[in-house]
Amino acid sequence: MTDLHARHRAVSPDWLTLYYERPLEITHGEGRHVWDADGNRYLDFFGGILTTMTAHALPEVTKAISEQAGRIVHSSTLYLNRPLVDLAERVATLSGIPDARVFFTTSGTEANDTALLLATTFRGSNQILAMRNSYHGRSFSTVSVTGNRSWSPTSLSPLQTLYVHGGVRTRGPYADLNDAEFTAACVRDLEDLLGHTRGAAALIAEPIQGVGGFTSPPDGLYAAFREVLDRHGVLWISDEVQTGWGRTGDHFWGWQAHAENGPPDILTFAKGIGNGMSIGGVVARAEVMNCLDANSISTFGGSPVTMAAGLANLTYLLDHDLQGNARRVGGLLIERLRALAARVPAVREVRGRGLMIGIELAEPGTGRADPEAAAAVLEVAREGGLLIGKGGGHDTSVLRIAPPLSLSVAEAEEGASILGEALRAAG
Q: What is the DSSP code string of 25-85?
């Protein structure tokens, strides 16, 4: 154990997770690469849990941070803040929500917490619908709508949460159905569930489940849900903390794969927009956002420095069509990984969209999740110079691949090659 690891363990809670048998200290990064304290270079295919969205040490972002910090670092939402207004205007337009209002927070957890506050206040109900296998944050309220045992440490809750089928396509009671039958069965489940409630406030759903292992329903499921929700007056919260900003390639937001019946009532975001700076937020139509009848502020949400970073990062992403790059390079990467995985019996499925790819590992012959194999691949990939993540419901048997959206074709090929070797060695 290194001295830093020992010091970490002495002052940190036991439940604060570290990757790797020999935990890694990352000291600096550039582009799609990072370096550890021993000088080893790694190709980063996890981007600080999908947070380093454009690139490490992106000059446009670091310059914006430095220049704003040289003027003023903090003022709070009690004062007018030009970078906040500038970024809010852009996010409101991009959200697709009519008459949108934007509230900035410091994290995705806080954004989802705010969305739950808005929905329960607007509807006068503490009943929330959530998806099985979901993850929405680590606060008391967001843990209570997280349908993933590994990340929900308490059964106590300020909310009454009911869980809906549909977030996982290839496991569960509807896995053997085709896409149309799967969607119809999930809609019937939702209809039945709402028949037993007294007026739910909202359905909160990730278009692609992040911590759950990059699982997703067929396109259009949430549009079909929306028809049912609207009949019952139930709001739709789209948790875009991991799917937003073009990561899926095909769409700027994950909800747009389910857009037939319009945008969500509430959209939450975080992670990639700040490229590592602490930015989260909520977008909602004015009627919903303005329903609170008490004063509120955010001490740190929307700080001048983080807003300057977010503006520079968003501008770079749009000017360089990183959504298009995610679609093109991500498409090549997933096909390369599928070809490699076809020769590894332990790989149950390679799935994903854009630069949001999951590789699910299972015991050959039984189909049972194999978290030990996933942990082993993580270690071997690190030794080969590649950093990836893991997740996947209660079993944590899915490798999560989510590099910065500026990933090049050569880097995609390099990462796929390393990962292929790691899969063969561990599987």
A: -EEEEEBTEEEETT--EEEESSHHHHT--S-BT-HHHHHHHHHHHHH-S---TTS--HHHH
Half-sphere exposure of 256 (CA within 13 A, CB side): 15
And the tokens for 177?
């159905």
Residue 307 tokens, joined: 């807003």
Neighbours of 125 (CB within 10 A): 19
**Residue 336, amino acid:** R
Task: Determine contact, residues 72/83, Cβ cutoff 8 Å.
Answer: no
Average pLDDT, the chain: 95
**Model confidence, pTM:** 0.96
Q: Any idea what DSSP says for residue 209?
A: B
Residues contacting 105, CB < 8 A, separation 6+: 111, 113, 114, 270, 279, 280, 281, 282, 298, 301
- Cα→Cα distances 84→102, 189, 251, 301, Å: 10, 41, 25, 9
The alpha-helical segments, DSSP class H, found in 103-232 are 108-123, 140-143, 179-194, 221-232
What digits encode the pLDDT tens for the residues 368-423? 999 999 999 999 999 999 999 999 876 889 999 999 999 999 999 999 999 999 99
Taking residues 246-273, what's their average pLDDT?
Answer: 97
Question: What is 102-120 written as a DSSP string?
Answer: EEEESSHHHHHHHHHHHHH
